[in-house]
Predict the 3D structure of the following.
Amino acid sequence: MTDPTTLRPPTVDPGRPAAAAARFASAARPDVAYDLIPTPVGTLVAAVTPRGLVRLAYEDFNGGREAILDDLAARVSPRILAVPHRVDDVRQELDEYFAGERRGFDVPLDWRLTTPFQRRVLDAAVAIPFGQTRTYTQVATAAGSPTGARAAGNALGGNPLPVIVPCHRVLRGGGGLGGYTGGLDRKRTLLAVEGAEVEPDRLPGL
């Protein structure tokens, strides 16, 4: 008969569970992969799904990275993981844009965070050529709602994919900047990157 005093629990390496978890995380394909991208207009949180880029957010304008990821977990999927290489195409195209080497973006987009009306408004913004601008009324008209300038402005303000979906190209009818999801300084910078012809005396604060 075995002497119970000689029984000992098996030795467990405390690093093994962590290593196993790391191996699982590296092998599992998350529903949402993200990374941080530094740009001349601040750090962007870029999140992609198998469909394409689902979120591009100004980190300091949306409550920080954790708040952005929490929102994605609630609205897209809680299976979110930092996977930098999954965001490489977005990073490269943004680098080329800010270096003056790109006028449009080719990365696929996942539009699930938009409403049908917002999608029409954002499609109208995408149709604005590089270096040009349109008014809120013109964009609303292109989206099928000629009297919906204010609603179009709200839709643009909730753009989940700024910079790549160029809501910064939409101005007030009188020439003022209007609003922008990342703040007016960023809107000025993006318009300057594109060489947009906007009257300096109509830019608030300039």
